[in-house]
Design brief:
- Helix content is 35%, strand content 20%.
- By secondary structure, it is of the alpha/beta class.
- The two termini are 22 Å apart.
Length: 671
């Protein structure tokens, strides 16, 4: 019997060559291979007599192999030709560059061959995709044949043969509780593997797939429950005192040049309550563009600072980190707060404790910080599990810092409660001082020049965002706009008399800072950029946003990009350009004209595009899902319900507990 945790080379016939090829598919263990599911099936269920065949149909034929030979054409091509005979006629079979086939086939034996019927030298023939001897255990020949994600040198037939061997020689006893199997009418594990790899019909394949989608989500969500327990019950943190500090906090809030919204006040109340507990806070501050997450984080930082504990504030880019520093300086400098700026190129000095250190996520690995009471992660979807575990060493006397994470990525509530099931969530639902709206227009190709003329004549601070840095000459991407190319084209063209700049992630940090500063003070009027500006660049006087190749973005990301303009009270304008002529893309992008709510747009995209845009937030703890679909809310809620029900009694379910450990290497390649 195979152990699913063993290296894939433990299977007979898989030597160093095939082991290396399988690694290209993230297959390292026997379990990885078993869970390498088909992405579609070739339907060879139509079995016909040879005399009834027609050109271009995909069929299966049965008969006796009467001849097979290898041929070299006068042009040097290698062909293998064979003849299959049934009671109604003879069919010629042709393979190209596959002379080994002659050694495999047996003249006089009965076979089934499946493939597309074509015409060669004015007579019907078939180029077989699959074949089997009739006395062999069928892999579904004449029914549905699995098609797997492949790599050069590994065919679906080869993969299917090895997977069949695993199913026949592994202990695939059921591990899901009986209640789940019965309530949801899922097939047992062994049958599920047969039905997803070698189904009798499409319905069996669909049912098996639903079972594995549920299985993957259930195990992920049981792990979420475990993380929640470990964080809240087994870790201790410094208790942040509020008593006797209320006046200082109130004075700070009164000194702000704006009124806090009701949702900001509530988020501060919830966060203060968490900070006062002896177990570490693990709270997500979720708010659309412009809802004021930074000021909430600043007030919480001030409270921790007043408790003589250090604060780390981490942003995803140095540009954003510098902007946060300027915000903190503007509001806190008069209070004598020790503020420090730490980047990848500026080393930590001997900071005077307590302090608030602001920098990028690289802070965690470049410097040693101690006695940290609070860590704030801005745009937490860019912050991985590895960095998060690093936080545990930053407290004092084995204390774990409190953790406040923030995101402007709108997440539908069901997904938030599921993916972030180990976090408490504070939503910011109001946008303070929102006096002006942003006018959004999806611009057809024939109106592009007119739109640019309007932008030029407006003479306003303008962002032009392109998905790529450099132009791609791959046929799939040749029409996608690139920042460097567009910068040169626009500088020589319509904006030849306008100050224009370029910003992208590969530029040195000091150069990026200089470009942003020039754009901020008006020395640069038009800034061509990659989506590096998406996460928080704050230029209040910028009023125009142009987004090129917009079909490549999710609606929520586009909403965040347009949120970069109109932040100073003036009316903002967002022009959406496409690099394809897809009607579906156009219809999807038109929702931006209708809705100015990031959460609503995220929900629309989830329905239209599935869960692809959600993968960015997976670094929080979810692995990239292999078969489950986060847009399938019913299955997600179902898995969440069962995870909460069974987690407290996992010790009484040894098969499920063992599976949780096993599955870490099943769905995702693990070397």
């Amino acid at each position: 019997m195979y152990d699913l945790g063993l290296p894939v080379s433990a299977i007979p016939g898989i030597g160093p060559k095939y082991k290396k090829l399988l690694q290209n598919l993230d297959i390292f263990t026997i379990g990885n291979l078993l869970y390498h599911f088909p992405f579609r099936y070739d339907d060879f269920s139509k079995v016909k007599y040879i005399s009834d065949l027609e050109v271009n149909e995909i069929v299966t034929v049965k008969g006796t192999l009467t001849d097979v030979k290898n041929i070299y054409t006068k042009f040097g091509k290698r062909l293998t030709k064979a003849k299959l005979t049934d009671s109604t006629g003879v069919l010629e079979l042709i393979w190209f560059n596959s002379h080994f086939i002659k050694r495999v086939l047996t003249i006089g034996a009965d076979y089934t061959f499946s493939g597309k019927v074509t015409s060669f030298s004015n007579k019907l023939c078939m180029i077989p995709q699959n074949y089997e001897k009739l006395d062999e255990l069928s892999q579904g020949q004449g029914k549905l044949v699995p098609v797997y994600p492949e790599t050069a040198g590994l065919s679906s037939k080869w993969l299917g043969t090895k997977i069949k061997d695993i199913i026949l020689n592994s202990d695939l006893s059921e591990f899901l509780p009986d209640k789940i199997i019965q309530n949801e009418k899922y097939p047992l594990l062994n049958k599920s593997h047969w039905d997803i790899h070698f189904p009798k019909n499409q319905e069996d394949a669909n049912i098996a797939r639903r079972r594995f989608q549920f299985e993957e989500l259930l195990i992920e969500l049981l792990n979420v429950e475990n993380r929640k327990k470990l964080w809240s019950q087994e870790k201790k943190s410094a208790v942040i005192k509020i008593k006797d500090l209320e006046k200082k906090i109130s004075d700070l809030i009164r000194s702000l040049p704006f009124e806090l919204t009701a949702s900001q006040h509530e988020a501060i109340r919830q966060t203060f309550n968490d900070l006062s507990q002896e177990h570490p806070m693990n709270r997500l501050l979720e708010g659309d563009v412009g809802t004021g997450k930074t000021i909430v984080a600043l007030i919480c930082s001030y409270l921790v600072y007043l408790n003589n504990k250090n604060v780390l504030y981490m942003a995803p880019t140095e540009i954003l980190a510098k902007q946060h520093l300027e915000t903190f300086e503007r509001i806190l400098n008069s209070l004598g707060i020790n503020l420090n700026y730490v980047t990848s190129f500026r080393k930590k000095e001997n900071f005077t404790t307590p302090y608030i250190a602001i920098g990028t996520h690289a802070l965690l690995f470049k410097e040693k910080f101690e006695d940290v009471g609070l860590v704030i992660i801005d745009e937490q979807h860019r912050f991985g599990v590895e960095q998060r575990t690093k936080l545990q060493s930053m407290g004092s006397e084995s204390l774990t810092p409190h953790l406040l994470t923030m995101t402007a990525t709108p997440i539908p509530r069901t997904l938030a409660l599921t993916i972030y099931g180990d976090l408490e969530i504070s939503p910011l639902s109001h946008i303070p001082n929102k006096l002006k709206s942003i006018s959004t227009k999806v611009v057809p190709e024939n109106a592009r020049d007119k739109a640019f003329d309007w932008i030029k004549n407006s003479n306003e601070q303008t962002f032009i965002v392109c998905p790529f840095i450099e132009k791609s000459y791959h046929e799939d991407f040749e029409d996608v706009k690139a920042a460097t190319y567009e910068y040169e084209r626009l500088k020589k063209g319509i904006f030849s008399q306008t100050s224009i700049g370029l910003l992208h992630g590969r530029m040195p940090s000091n150069e990026k800072e200089e470009i942003v500063k020039k754009f901020e003070n008006g020395q640069i009027k038009v800034l061509v950029s990659t989506p590096v500006i998406e996460v928080g660049i704050d230029i209040p006087q910028a009023t125009i946003m142009v987004i090129e190749s917009a079909e490549r973005y999710g609606l929520a990301s586009l909403h965040q990009l347009r949120g970069r303009v109109g932040r100073g009270g003036q009316k903002g304008y967002c022009f959406i350009f496409m690099s394809d002529n897809s009607r579906n893309s156009y219809r999807r992008l038109k929702y931006l004209e209708e809705y100015d709510n990031g959460l609503k747009l995220a929900e629309i995209d989830l329905k239209l595009r599935g869960h692809g845009d959600i993968y960015g937030i997976m670094q929080h703890g979810f692995s990239t899902l292999k078969i489950a679909d986060l847009s399938d809310i019913d299955t997600l809620e179902k898995a969440k319900k069962y995870a909460q029900e069974y987690f407290p009694i996992l010790d009484s379910l040894p098969k499920l507990s063992k599976r949780i450990e096993q599955v870490k290497g099943l769905y995702v390649g693990n070397n």
